[in-house]
Amino acid sequence: RKWLITGARGAKTWIIMANLEANDHLPEGPTLFLCDGETEGIVIERIMNTMDRNYAEGHAVVRFDNLTLPREALLGETGQAFRYAQLRLAPARLTHCMRWLGAASRAQDIAVDYARTRTSFGKTIGEHQGVSFMLADNEIALHQCRLTIWHACWMMDNGAKGRHESSMAKSFVSEELFKVTDRCVQVLGGI
Predict the structure, then answer these.
(1) I want to staple 162 with a disulfide (CB 3.0 to 4.6 A). Which of 38, 87, 90, 108 is the partner?
(2) Does an H or E element contain 59, and which?
């Protein structure tokens, strides 16, 4: 059973990481397989309730019920799944960061527009220090996050694996952008 499988419902193609039966002629370790989404033995038990709605089909709990795949389904070399997965991790981390940055930037745009039009005590709320300081902090955080992502991408463009930089970016960006969106909610009156 596997939890938090993104986009499982409706997936046309699956990449599955699994262990092969013990065999003296094959290297140890998990192996990748490529198969059709309608393959018998792939059972979607349920879609989980999560706060992350970035994926239309959500995150599923999947069970492999006597799933058997032919040799042609082998993706890459046997026993090398972790090595292949590691190659993909850094770019995937940065993809998450970019998506979060886009969402937080949009929240900031909405909050700034609102602060320019909503009035309180005879002036727009953006003219009040409490609101303007929050929006300024957001601009600083968005810029720092953008630079952190760009730096990690630059490292990878220049031949580095980017594991360290992408991990730092994912940690930093996720925390900062939570703060940005929290301040945006406050500006919009959700204090």
Answers:
(1) 90
(2) strand 59-64
